[in-house]
Description:
- This protein is of the alpha/beta class.
- Among the domains are: 8-205, Nucleotidyltransferase, domain 5; 460-565; 618-824, P-loop containing nucleotide triphosphate hydrolases (Rossmann fold).
- Helices cover 41% and strands 16% of the residues.
- The strands form 5 sheets. Strands 10-11-9-12-17-8-18 form a 7-stranded parallel beta sheet, sandwiched between helices. A 7-stranded parallel beta sheet has the order 21-22-20-23-24-19-25, with helices on both faces. A 5-stranded mixed beta sheet has the order 3-2-1-4-5, with helices on both faces.
- A hairpin with an 8-residue loop joins β1 (8-16) and β2.
- α22 (482-504) packs antiparallel against α23 and α26 (634-648) crosses α27 (662-674).
Amino acid sequence: xxEKNTNKYAIVDLEATxxxxxxxxIQVGIVIMQNGQVIDEFASDVNPHQKLDxxxxxxxxxxxxxxxxxxxFSEIARKIFDLIxxxxxxxxxxxxxxxxxxxxxxxxxxxLRTPRVDTVELAQVFYPTLEHYKLSHLSKVLNLDLxxxxxxxxxxxxxxxxxxxxMDKIASLPRQTIDLLLTFSDNLLFESELVIRDAIRGQKHExxxxxxMLEESGIVLxxxxxxxxxxxxxxxFETNIALLGxxxxxxxxxxxxxxxxxLDNTDISMIQAQTGIGKTYGYLLTxxxxxxxxKVVVAVPTKLLQNQIMSQEAKSLAEIFNINFHSLKGPxxxxxxxxxxxxxxxxxxxxxxxxxxxxxxxxxxxxxTGDLDEIRQKQRYMAYFDEIKHDGKLKADSLFKDxxxxxxxxxxxxxxxxxxxxxxxxxxRMEDDHDFVRGKTLVIDExxxxxxxxxxxxxxQVNLTSLLQQIHRILDHGNxxxxxxxxxxxLQFEISHLIQEHQQFPQKQxxxxxxxCLLQTITELEGESGLVKMLSPLQTPLYSHFWLETDYYQxxxxxxxxxxxxxxxxxxxxxxxxxxxxxxxxxxxxxxxVDVADLLGLNQVHKVSLPMDNLLNQAIWIDQSMPMIxxxxxxxYDKAVAKRLQKLTKTEYPILVLFTSRKSMLAVSDLxxxxxxxxxxxxxxxxxxxxxxxxxxxxxxxxxxxxxxxEGVDFAQQDRxxxxxxxxxxxxxxxxxxxxxxxxxxxxxxxxxxxxxxxMTILRFKQAIGRSQRRPDQRSAILLLDNRPLVKSYGKxxxxxxxQEISLERTKFKTFNEDIQTFLQKES
Length: 828
């Protein structure tokens, strides 16, 4: 760092008897910095004249005996004040340290009036893509020296290094971006602007060659990277795996050989392979090694898995072989620069929104994609991100028409060797662009999930909660005509009535006639284009079934009106132009009478089933002592789940808990909070992608998840893991999709539960437990809390199918808690 930075900084860290404002200081660490150099340090224990609780002793390593020998704060107050009174006070979470130290000094007759800088807040602005901003995490990401965490002087030194990094990062940014940032710096909670101005002192306005400045807006973007020349892959799979620094696996090689053979087959190929064998590398390396393969499209079930492939397999293949990958998502995943620019022009009173503007200005100098998923903490204020996300439209006179991220993504999808997308967007793209897969090799990973993706694609939904809010705003502030007012009030009444009826009768469904009044009001609305656009698709004759669903969140709920078509969609309608279609699945046969190809509407299919091996490093226990689902209330069942999870934490093994219901997951999470059990919960603590990364890093030993965690997401970081399944993932018989299937099966004289629902439940269960068996040396203990297989008529088939690959025992929880210790401690 140059000597242009003239401010003097006192980087302070305190350890205290608690996190309360009434706490007593037990340790002080101070580092004085100027011109990028440490010029002084001070460290001392402080005698609080009270006993420490066990939590503080465990956290800091400080003992009562140690503090009994320490000076009173009064003995060191003058030295501390003289050291920092002419400095800028810096701390990681400065409010706590500055307030506590200022009050302690004030009690000794010293009034501290130094400006304050918070490195948490600065890190949030200048490192916008991090999941969280604890000093320990930042130290790991930025390679700061934090040898003894929660020692005051070590934390102060690490915070000083963080300040160095922040000032270097700020100085490296284009001056034009910094100038824009400074227009919002009043929204920082403390005087952190002083650090920004200090870091750029003497900085030139000349724009570095890697940036583009959009003159009229002042926004600076990073120039898009050009694709590198690809390297040829070896025809030998084992050689390619070795070049990636990976070890070969016999089952993976067999799978790769099956893929190679199927590439010569003109029919659609379906390959069934066991989970945990490394299928992604298996098909990617094999396909990319073929000289006649031009372009590849890979579709996976979820955006979470899409992100996972891009951050793992795609990244490795790009680094070693220069393979050009592109992750393609729907337009709403990308920032719309026009919308973002409009928010820069207005004054928002919300500090958090303004800080997001600062984060995004920094992020735009670094992102190559414009994918808003890169902003890890956007869930804290989703309303703002809903405002700036892309809608797929771009005006001809847009300031950003040549730099629009969605347009760039569309173009990159044409140029890249491999496009990775998700099932839902693949269907959308193929419907909008019939040539999207023309002449390409299409891989549909987890093919059985495409059945549900087709159903979701055939549906339409309206967020009724958001719609009511919009109507309310128009009635209060929109000055509608008398006729419009009456129509909006009528619409408001109809929607409120639907929501109230749904709360009383959650399973109720509607036909078009029953929603006639609502649909008629939509046709008469004029001038409210946003509302009409949202509701008008419901009028199409395509949709025949209507129902409501509600999502439950921490402090609110959201109701949706959903519409579905009468018939099942067929995947075959979208595939004729592909050069080769390869469907990879954990199963081909859903049951004895039906397979995945039937449900996808595929006819000419060549099927390959690879042998399944017994999984010796996994074992399943069914808890006989759990209350029976359907006999006890949901509340009591959730309490029983939480009670067992609390006891399992004592094993100190990582615990993955899978739920089928968001409501149940959040209820159990709240119960764990009351028991002070440290854990992460999907949506409550971040997106699925974020909480998984935090769990993998060992931030906590327990993760509660649902949805995408049931299949396709690997938990390979944990050597030993306990996986708890709260209840079996049965289909809801009242779901319109299930009712469609009932109609489809009944025409063939088949029973839906036996032919589809039970086999699919077994499949989902197998895939769920496969999440924790990703390496030969990994061991996982599975606890199924749902004991219905032990008493229901279908139980024999469930137990037979599951125990074919994995040992299964019936037990009581107390016994399980003892057995897993023995099982997980075995050598693999």
